[in-house]
Amino acid sequence: MSLFIQSPLEKLKLNQKNEFADLHIRNIYMIAENYFPTTCRRLKVNEIIIIEITPIQNGVNSIENKNEDLVSIITKYQIETIQNTNPFSMALNGVIDAAVNGGINMYVNAFLQDKYLKDYPSDENLVLKMKQLLVNQLYILNVGLSLHNRLCPDNFRPFHDKMKIQFDDMKEKLVSYLKDMKPDEIFK
């Protein structure tokens, strides 16, 4: 692959209140004659591949990427003795108290309601995958909060306690959508 472009795809807006429900993405891959970087001003494009990603697939990808980021930072703080816990705190808080973009609730409202599967029965596997990723995320956040509890300095204790309360609220709201699901083996 020589060039990759990702852009939102304008489609009919069905849900004005939840942008995640209508967020189609177009990935454009351009295969050129030569590789970048190059000194040539122009390159012949041999092939263009366009892949459209549906809103639910985009949501699954987003949650999957966030889970990987969380596992990475948790593992880093488990292994290394790092004095500054601010990046760790912000990573956890960014998911638990997602003030930007509405967080997990936006995915729940867009894709985990019964109406969604009635309208899009072919997305059943993606809905199940999203649910599994959310179960995994709850598990990851629980491990992260436990580690944060041990690492956070005393002056961060009120912040940690606030995150713990918000996490418990988040978990309580998600439980009804994630019945009988268990997390994958994440931390080996």
Automatic annotation (TrEMBL):
GO terms for cellular component: cytoplasm; plasma membrane. Belongs to the DOCK family. Signal peptide: none annotated. GO terms for molecular function: guanyl-nucleotide exchange factor activity; small GTPase binding. PROSITE patterns: DOCKER (PS51651). InterPro entries: DOCK (IPR026791), DOCK_C_lobe_C (IPR043162), DOCKER_dom (IPR027357), DOCKER_Lobe_C (IPR046773). This is Dock4 protein. The lineage of its organism: Eukaryota, Metamonada, Anaeramoebidae, Anaeramoeba. Transmembrane segments: none annotated. It comes from the Eukaryota. GO terms for biological process: small GTPase-mediated signal transduction. Residues 1-183 form the DOCKER domain. It holds the Pfam family DHR-2_Lobe_C.
